[in-house]
Amino acid sequence: MGNVSVSELRYIVGPSSYDSVGSKAMKVKKFLQDYFPSQDYLRRLGVCVFEAEANLAIHTTSGGDLLIVIYNNRVKVVAQDTGPGIPDIDKALTPGFTTAPEMARQLGFGGGVGLNNIKRFADSFWLESLKRGTTLVFEVWNDDSTQFDY
Amino acid sequence: MMTLRNLITKLPFQVLTNKCNFDVSFQNVYASDLLSNALASVNPETAWITVQVHQNILGIASIKQCPVVIFSEGAVPDDSVISLAEEKDIFLLTSSYPTFELSGLLYRLLKEE
Amino acid sequence: MKINEICKTVDAEILQSKGRLHIDIHTAFAADLMSDTLFIIMRDEDPLLLITGVTNLSVVRTASILDIPAVMIVRGKNVPPETIQLAEQNEIVLLRSKHIMFVVCGLLYKAGIQGVSWEM
C-alpha cells in the first residue's frame, strides 16, 4: 500500500448504550474500505472493533473511548474506560463466561466470547485491567505474510 | 414423542447430567438463546436448544417444567450449573453442531418418528 | 437456493428487498446472540442466511460487519421500522417467517441448505 499517512478515528461509547452497539464498528469498517480492499481483512477488523465497542457499552460504569489509528497496513485499536475493571482476566477470556447483565443478553449481547474473539483475530493483544479502569490495545494487520488459524 | 434414549442413540450428544432417566420424552423442540422467548415457549413436552450456559436457563426450564436442555456449538456450563440441573431433574446434553444443523437433524428425526 | 424459494419453503415474507436479492444461498447460521454470530462466521463463506429472533439494530450491524446478505427473522416478530431502515441503507435483505427458529432451520436443512463450516 506504499506510504499511507496516519489517520485516526475517535469515538465515545456511553455506558449501557445497548441501542448503538455496533454503530461505531460499522463506521470504522466503512471508513477503512478506502484503505483496504480485502473484504476478509475488513470483516476481521470489524468483528474486533464491534466486540471492543460492545464491551465498553455493556461492562463499564461511565462508558469509554475507542481510538482507531490507521498506519501503513495496520490498524491499532485502543479501548479505554474508567472502571469497574475486570476482576478475573483469565475467566473473562474463557469462552462462554459472561458477567453481562440480563438486559444485554436479551438484546443478543454478552455471549461470553467477546475478548476471546478479539484475541483470536488480532495480531497483537494487550489487556490491562485495574479497578480504576481497563485498557485494551490490539492491532489487526493486513500484511500478506500473516497467517490466520481459523 | 421421542425418548432421550432414542435421541442419544441417533445423534452424537454428550450427556452432561448424571442419573439421567433415559425414558424422559419430548414432543417438540424450541431453539432460542433469548431467555424471555424461551420463557414464553418451552413447556413439559419441549427440548430446548440454546448456546446460553448461564445458570438462569435452569430457572426457566424449571418454571416451565422443560425436561431437556441441549447446548449447541459444544457449549458446556460450569459444574455448578450441571449439579443444579441434576437437583432439579433437568437433563443437559451438549452437541458440537451449531443450532442450524442440530435443528435440521432433530427436525428430520422427529418427523420420521 | 434463491431467496424467493427460501421464502416459499419457510412461509416467509420479504420485509426489505434492497440488496443482493437474487443471489443463491447455500449456507445458514442460526443464533440470537450476535457475539456468537461474530465468533463463528469469519470465513469467506458463500452468501449466508442469518436466522435469528433478534429484531433490534444490532442484527443489521452484525450482518453488515460480516457481509451477510440476508437475515431471516423468526416467529413472525414485529420488526422496528428503524431496523428495516438500517437494513435498507446497508442493503441487507430482511425476511420474516411465521415459524419458530427450530422449524425454519428444519425446513431449510431439509431443502438442502447447509450449516457454515466452523471449528471450535
Explain how this protein is built:
The complex is a heterotrimer of chains A (150), B (113) and C (120). Chain A is α+β, with helices and mostly antiparallel strands. Chain A has helices at 23-32, 39-59, 89-92, 102-106, 114-121, and strands spanning 7-13, 64-71, 74-81, 124-130, 133-141. Chain A is built from 5 helices and 5 strands; from the N terminus they run E-H-H-E-E-H-H-H-E-E. In chain A, helix 1 (23-32) packs antiparallel against helix 2. The longest helix of chain A is centred in the first third of the chain and has 21 residues, at 39-59. In chain B, the strands form 2 sheets. In chain B, strands 2-7-6-5-4 form a 5-stranded mixed β-sheet, with helices on both faces. Chain B has a two-stranded antiparallel ribbon with strand order 1-3. Chain C contains 5 helices and 6 strands.
Count of extended strands of chain C: 6
**CATH homologous superfamily label of chain B:** HprK N-terminal domain-like
Given helix and strand content, the structural type of chain B is alpha/beta
Q: Tell me the domain tally of chain C.
A: 1
How would you write the strand order of the largest sheet of chain C? 1-5-4-3-2-6
Tally the helices of chain B. Answer: 5
CATH topology of chain C: Udp-n-acetylmuramoylalanyl-d-glutamate--2,6- Diaminopimelate Ligase, Chain: A, domain 1
Mind telling me the CATH superfamily name of chain C? HprK N-terminal domain-like
Overall average residue pLDDT of chain B: 94
What's the architecture of chain C in CATH terms? 3-Layer(aba) Sandwich
